[in-house]
Structure formats: C-alpha cells, structure tokens
Design brief:
Strands 3, 4, 5, 6, 7, 8, 9, 10 and 11 form a 9-stranded parallel beta sheet that branches. A two-stranded antiparallel ribbon has the order 1-2. The chain contains 16 helices and 11 strands. It is α/β, with parallel strands linked by helices.
Length: 333
C-alpha cells in the first residue's frame, strides 16, 4: 500500500492519532514494535496560524518515527490552508523530520470539536468538507490524506458517496472509522460500509479501516472480509504497543504470539519512559508517562498500591526502582 510514493508494505497496520497519547515517545515505540506508520496528535489549525507554542511543538517529529503524518483539524477554510502549509514546512518551523504526509481530521467526535463544525462536525457539511480538502491538496506539496466517519448519525451515513468526492479532489488515502459521530465510541464499529467504499469500482486510493481492532484475529478478519488496504489501531494500543508486533506476526505466519512476560513489559515500559524523559525532560516526561505506565501492568494481582506509587512519584530513580520491583515480584508471570 502506498500513500503517494510512500510505500507502507502489504497489509500495513498503523497507529491512530490520539490526543494526549500519540506523542513522539509513543510513536517511536510503536514504530519499533511494528507499526507501519504513525500520526501526530491532532493539531488545531487556528493554534498553528497563531503560532501557539503547544500547536507548533506538536508538529515536531523525528526520523525514528517516519513515515509520519501530521494531522490538522478545523472548520475555517483559510485557516486550514495556512495550517496545512505550515505542516508542509514542519521541519523548518518546528525542527526535526517534518511530515511525510498531511492528514485532515474529519473524524473527532468530541463535542468541543464537532460542536463547532470541525472534526466529525464536518459530516453535516459535506460540501464544505470537500472544498476544504480540495484547497488543502492544492496548497501543499506533500500527499494529503483524510480520516473521517460513516456520517453524522444513523440517518446520514454518507461515506460511500463522500469517499468518491474526497478522492476526486486529490487525497492519497482515506481512513474510515466505522461509527457515526453520534455513536462517539459506543457500540460496535460497522465495517460493512468501509467494505462498500473499498469495493466501489470507482475507488482507486488506499482505504484504511479503523474501529474495534484489538487483536490479531480481528485485524486479519478486517483484511480478509472487507478487503481494506490497511488497518488503523487506536485504543487497543494503550499499554499494548506490542499489538503491532502481534498483528504483523499473525498476518505473516498465521501464528499467535504469546502475551509478553512481565519482564518483557517492564523492558518496554523502561524504553518508553526513557524516550519520554529524553524528549521532554523532568518533570514533564514523568507526568506525561503516567497515562501509559499503569496500563502496561493491567491485570496483575495485588497491584493497586504499586500502581498508586508509580503514578504519583516524580522521582525518576524511584520510578525505575518501582519497575525493578514489578519485574522481581511478578517474575513468574
């Protein structure tokens, strides 16, 4: 599968963009664990054009995580064009590697985004969505992709026609989350319309499916049953960056890998913590690891007190010591 001339290989599995989750340390870790591509956290177009520090910082990517897409969102055409041009020049503006491709978020369902017409709020204004996409494609040199949903609600699942229109204005790949905006993240993702888009004879760009992929078996079923070109994994990566390794191995061999041992999980958590500290320093590198650290060890017996210590300390040597304790205490698991 290719995005423009970026080759992601056969049946790629990519990391979804997630706010407060997919920072550079996690993106690098997921690439090391087998993700074929990664995306930044979504970046507000109005923040970029105001040169807001946080928005600019989110554009900074590193060579180790490439290929990487910088994802932007917004509902004002002029702002989206200017933001996309900034993302196109991210290496110059924010430093680092820059963008291999630019992704437009038309899928975020949270009220503060969708309620003002951005993210999946655009599903209520498909003409405007297509116009913004066309303007962005024409304004930048890098490939442009889109991530969106089936529609606004059950009575307006417009994705089959919309996919054609987005393709016709020049996007290089389309990711579809198999829920409507009104579903948020509830219920089951409906892959039937994703399959319908993929099997539409008019479609020739890659279609990436997203929604409820939390195991190698589900990933394989999505490829086999619905014919998608790629799979995007989101919430199932929390505390499980090795899910990419597991899916890749199963797709290639048909064999399921065993669950990592606690020793292996500690090693991955150490690597993640080290990356976070290298990239963000103290105490921020510790603060922003808390959402990840306890997830690595979900399900361990009698773990509550250890978890509380792990997500409250700011002392780095103590944090590494706690990881040593976990490895020793649960050595047989």
């Amino acid at each position: 599968m290719k995005i423009g001339n970026i080759d992601l290989g056969e049946r790629p599995v990519v990391l979804a963009p997630m706010e407060d989750v997919t920072d550079a340390s996690f993106r690098i870790l997921c690439r090391e664990q087998g993700a074929a591509a990664v995306y930044t956290e979504f970046i507000p177009s109005d923040g970029l054009i105001r040169d807001a520090h946080k928005a600019i910082e989110k554009m900074r990517t590193l060579e180790e995580e490439a290929p990487v897409g910088i994802q932007i969102y917004g509902h004002i055409p002029e702002s989206m064009v200017k933001a996309a041009q900034m993302a196109d020049r991210a290496a110059e503006i924010a430093g680092g590697h820059g963008a291999d491709f630019i992704d437009i978020n038309f899928g975020c369902p949270v009220t503060k985004i969708a309620g003002r017409g951005a993210g999946s709020g655009m599903m209520r204004e498909p003409d405007k969505m297509v116009a913004i996409t066309k303007a962005v494609v024409e304004a930048v040199g890098k490939p442009v992709t889109v991530k969106t949903r089936l529609g606004w609600d059950d009575s307006s699942k417009i994705i089959v026609e919309l996919a054609e229109r987005l393709q016709d204005v020049g996007i290089q790949a389309l990711t579809i989350h198999g829920r409507t905006r009104c579903q948020l993240y509830k219920g089951k993702a409906d892959w039937t319309l994703i399959g319908e888009v993929k099997n539409n004879p008019r479609m020739h760009i890659p279609i990436i499916g997203n929604g409820d992929i939390d195991s190698p078996e589900k990933a394989k079923e999505a490829f086999d049953k619905f014919g998608v070109d790629g799979i995007m994994v989101a919430r199932a990566t929390y505390g499980r960056p090795w899910i990419f390794r597991d899916i890749r191995h199963y797709l290639d061999t048909g064999e399921l890998l065993p669950e990592p041992t606690v020793r292996e999980k500690v090693a991955i958590a150490r690597r993640h913590l080290g990356l976070s500290l290298d990239l963000k320093g103290e105490p921020r590198g510790v603060y922003e690891m808390r959402r990840h650290l306890s997830c690595y060890f979900r399900g361990l017996p009698d773990f509550k007190d250890t978890r509380i210590r792990m997500v409250t300390t700011l002392d780095v040597p103590e944090l590494y010591s706690i990881l040593d304790e976990i490895e020793e205490r649960y050595a047989d698991l």
